[in-house]
Description:
The complex is a heterodimer. In chain A, helix 3 (44-53) crosses helix 8 and helix 5 runs parallel beside helix 7 (138-154). Chain A has a single domain, classed as Alkaline Phosphatase, subunit A (3-Layer(aba) Sandwich), CATH 3.40.720. By secondary structure, chain A is α/β, with parallel strands linked by helices. In chain A, strand 3 (76-78), helix 5 (100-114) and strand 4 form a beta-alpha-beta unit. Chain A contains eight helices and six strands, in the order βααβααβαβααββα. The two termini of chain A are 16 Å apart. The radius of gyration of chain A is 15 Å and the shape is globular. Chain A has helices spanning 14-18, 23-30, 44-53, 68-73, 100-114, 126-130, 138-154, 198-213; strands at residues 4-8, 32-37, 76-78, 120-124, 160-163, 180-185. Chain B has a single domain (2-130), classed as Glutaredoxin (3-Layer(aba) Sandwich), CATH 3.40.30.10. Chain B contains six helices and five strands, in the order H-H-E-H-E-H-E-H-E-E-H. Chain B has helices at residues 2-6, 9-25, 40-46, 60-75, 90-95, 122-130, and strands spanning 33-35, 49-55, 80-85, 103-108, 111-117. Chain B has a five-stranded mixed sheet, with helices on both faces. In chain B, helix 4 links the parallel strand 2 and strand 3 (80-85). Chain B starts with a helix and ends in a 5-residue tail after the last helix. The model of chain B is unreliable at 1-5 and 22-29 (pLDDT under 50). The chains are: A alpha/beta, B alpha/beta.
Amino acid sequence: MYPILLGINGISYGSFTECELNVLPRLMNIVDRGVVENKKPQYPDKSWWTILNMEPTNNTPSDPSLAPLVKLTRAALINIPVVNPTYGLYSIKLDQGTSYEEEVNNVIGALIKTAAKAPVIAAITAPDRFLHNNQSIKCNVYSVIDEAIGSLINGGVSAFILFSPYGEPVGPNEGDHEEYGIYIATISRPRHYDTVKLYEIGMLFRDLVESTLGV
Amino acid sequence: MANDASKDPELDKLLERKAKEIAKGVKNTGNVVELNHSNFNDFIKTHDVAVVDFWATWCAPCFMLEPIIKRLAVEMPNVGFGRLNTEEEPEIAAKYYVMSLPTVMIFKNGDPVDQVVGVVPKKILQDRIKAYLND
Lengths: 215, 135
């Protein structure tokens, strides 16, 4: 299997405990872990462009496949929220029209299938789409994601970066989230005692692809 | 005159006792106090039992522990709960030999009496704190 970069917009470590998750807490004890730092306001498109461009940027090219990270890694894209509807092999509208179960299952299914042939960059947007206005379903959303990550690992993915570009939604406004997201990966970071910046996630995935494929 | 008075050890003891009485009277409403060099000493001295969560922004398990501390602050209103960012206040962390994060330190009458390192289930932390409560 080829390396994968999977971003889950709007999840936080705190809810691993609150929702008594099974897979993600165990995973973070096995591989490298860190905290993604992204100050308010945090928007999905701007956050993802920073990752794809591997630098803090306001540059938003019209075609995500031309972004430096995509060109360097030749990664396939799945459900990337730089545009609405999302960009890639699987795509949804950034509203509540697609249920969180459907999105998570389809992204993970496409990921496992595609990672057999190429590196993959994928996103899950469900927490961001559903938790701004409805915290009561939080642990249901987290449980579906947790289980899906389990099937991803069982599906043979062994080189990965799982992250959230920002933490959980705080209140109804689109750009309001907790400022700290998750980073769980099979590639070690050079500065362990520092938070992970968005542009570094792109660079780390480039390094992961290079080290895994020897390119 | 005011300066002379503040150097009086008897007066300091009296003020400290009074502050404790006030703190006892005011129930903790479940909030976790953000601590720094200007309020740390007062915080640990004015609570019979105080619990301090030493954390840092880069520490993933620290974020996992946070909801447990918040929950305990609600369930144990007679205990003072605070958190200290060790990146912003390294001197305080060094003073208490905090080597790993997260570290939860339990203070009784201002002195450290116990500590728990890492993320542990709420029940374990609660039992450790309860051991230092008088009633």
